[in-house]
Amino acid sequence: xxxxxxxxxxxxxxxxxxxxxxxxxxxxxxxxxxxxxxxxxxxxxxxxxxxxxxxxxxxxxxxxxxxxxxxxxxxxxxxxxxxxxxxxxxxxxxxxxxxxxxxxxxxxxxxxxxxxxxxxxxxxxxxxxxxxxxxxxxxxxxxxxxxxxxxxxxxx
Length: 156
Known about the structure:
Helix content is 36%, strand content 35%. The protein is an alpha/beta fold. Strands 2-3-4-6-5 form a five-stranded mixed barrel.
């Protein structure tokens, strides 16, 4: 009776190192991948990501193309249609451009910052009037300006 001998594969150490490195890379990239798929899953199901303008400004690659619902301060006037980080914002870099249609613009004019909720698709990259804003919401599916009492309630 012949005994069979199981041969172990004789892999060079460099191939083992490559396999282990690829495995480590796959494991390390899991948090990034899960964050990416969570954003795109929410977009495909119609559930917007609840966020603040500052989050999108700080990490535009993370939110690019995602359906978002933002709370912030809207200013809607000639050559400035934005949602800002705060009612005191004066820098273009502290706001996102809102690509409103004529009906949305006419119905929501506000020279002074007004607390608002905006729902739409975020697009990272310099945009808006003369490309001054670090991102935009385009299209804007919904915009709602709060009155002063409702704004205080929403902030609590």
